[in-house]
Task: inverse folding
């Protein structure tokens, strides 16, 4: 008797109801969350929830789904193809190119699921290496460590986008993979971003993942998941990854829309009860990892636009609580000509300071102390015509410091040069100079630190100093050399004991 040939069976389900991009199916008894399903018309969706008698599906392709329409369970799950060929490309959250090019066929189709658990604590290691942004204000006063999660928030037109562009451009030639996730942004902003990255030859080490505001809500919702999945691929190759999520507030609103449509109970500000989990389980995928987990690191910068007059709302407080610090951008600072427009007094880094060298850490503490003291004295100085020497010196140093920290967009300053620049605040070089002179002198000094043998040798060893007093003393001795590059050869810095004592006092 011949054996009966076994037939292949495929699970199917039928649409019971649909609400825009949300479809409820009857059938598919063994389907799992994140399985892909395909309708008779070829429209794809993924299983987002399993109810007692129904399967909830979010559609990836636009189109009308009619009740009774047949759905088949796909062999694949919600995943994306991975490879080095993603560098220099712009794709949507399901891996479809949006830059007009074809993804290269490598012959090795490695796929990674989008929804993955974050590595546990045994796979992580101490964050001890600084993430150099090339921006003096950040690297010196609010340092970031490789593997840190730093929230970027502020009101509209405060310079957040320009800051994120600088973060990417300043990673050139540093063996850093940069991933930019555009979440629900207008297509015009996305094109502008791609144009800037292309014109600055940055696309070679970048991957852009984008879902514009005109696309289906489920695609926008998947954008940060795809970004983290791509970041993890490169991290497991031992690479350091910079990940920018712009803007995480749009992601929260999209998830709120999906949740309300699916009938979830709304909570505060109509967000569902699991909104905290949606973001925290994503951010936990960032970190600094051990060799057995591939090595490498993922440094995440989620961006949030928020009204600073109503800062303590539900979403900002949630995000501040699940990250390792935040950079607060203020549009008033930008309107006054400050770049980057970051409020240092309200910005926080929880793990960055442990990555700084000793001198950089000591100098940072001195600078922050000076800024706090000057803020107090500025109020007092309004009520007095004559001020003590120490008060006038502190206010002048604050003025010098403001000019040295002000840094135009698309410029990068190496950390040793940043240390020398800030150290000049505590020398007599600029004490008799106006702000315009300091602004012009800054670029000349940076050039001199590279060109002059004595200055370049000093700059190369600044991070080895263990004492702030020794550093300032040696820097003061080099002031005649710096004067030469500033065209001040006829001017001699007097070794005024009063100024020297005041500027080098700890």
Result:
């Amino acid at each position: 008797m011949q054996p009966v040939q076994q037939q292949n069976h495929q699970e199917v389900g039928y649409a019971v109801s649909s609400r825009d991009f949300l479809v409820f199916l009857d059938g598919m008894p063994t389907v799992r969350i994140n399985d892909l399903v395909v309708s008779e018309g070829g429209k794809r969706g993924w299983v987002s929830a399993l109810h007692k008698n129904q399967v909830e599906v979010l559609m990836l392709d636009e189109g009308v789904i009619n009740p009774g329409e047949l759905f088949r369970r796909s062999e694949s799950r919600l995943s994306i193809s991975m490879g080095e060929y993603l560098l220099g490309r712009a794709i949507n959250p399901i891996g479809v190119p949006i830059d007009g090019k074809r993804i290269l066929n490598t012959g090795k189709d490695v796929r990674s699921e989008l929804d993955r658990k974050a590595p546990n604590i045994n796979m992580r290691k101490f964050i001890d290496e600084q993430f150099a942004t090339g921006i003096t204000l950040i690297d010196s006063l609010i340092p970031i460590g490789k593997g840190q999660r730093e929230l970027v928030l502020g009101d509209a037109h405060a310079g957040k986008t320009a800051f994120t562009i600088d973060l990417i451009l300043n990673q050139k030639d540093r063996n850093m993979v940069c991933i930019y996730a555009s979440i629900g942004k207008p297509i015009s902003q996305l094109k502008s971003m791609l144009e800037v990255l292309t014109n600055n030859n940055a696309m070679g080490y970048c991957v852009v993942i984008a879902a514009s505001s005109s696309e289906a809500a489920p695609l926008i919702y998947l954008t940060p998941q795809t970004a983290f999945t791509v970041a993890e691929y490169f991290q497991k190759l031992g690479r350091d990854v910079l990940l920018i999520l712009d803007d995480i507030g749009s992601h929260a609103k999209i998830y709120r829309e999906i949740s309300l449509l699916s009938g979830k109970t709304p909570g505060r500000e109509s967000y569902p009860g699991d909104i905290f989990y949606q973001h925290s389980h994503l951010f936990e995928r960032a970190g600094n990892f051990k060799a057995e987990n591939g090595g490498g690191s993922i440094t995440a910068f989620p961006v949030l636009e928020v009204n600073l007059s109503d800062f303590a709302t539900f979403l900002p407080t949630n995000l501040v609580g699940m990250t390792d610090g935040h950079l607060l951008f203020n549009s008033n600072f930008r309107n006054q000509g400050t770049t980057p427009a970051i409020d240092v007094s309200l910005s926080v880094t929880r793990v960055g300071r442990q990555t700084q060298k000793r001198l950089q850490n000591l100098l940072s503490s001195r600078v922050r102390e000076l800024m706090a003291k000057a803020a107090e004295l500025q109020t007092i100085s309004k009520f007095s015509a004559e001020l003590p020497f120490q008060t006038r010196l502190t206010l002048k140093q604050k003025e010098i410091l403001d000019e040295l920290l002000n840094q135009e967009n698309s410029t990068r300053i190496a950390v040793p040069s940043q240390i020398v620049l800030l150290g000049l605040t505590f020398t007599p070089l600029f004490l008799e100079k106006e702000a315009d002179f300091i602004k012009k002198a800054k670029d000349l000094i940076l050039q001199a630190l590279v060109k002059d043998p004595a200055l370049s040798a000093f700059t190369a060893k600044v991070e080895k100093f263990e004492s702030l007093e020794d550093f300032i003393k040696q820097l003061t001795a080099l002031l005649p050399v710096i004067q030469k590059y500033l065209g001040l050869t006829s001017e001699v810095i007097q070794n005024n004991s009063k100024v020297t004592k005041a500027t080098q006092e700890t």
Remarks:
- The chain has three domains: 12-77, 81-355, 358-504.
- The longest helix spans residues 358-381.
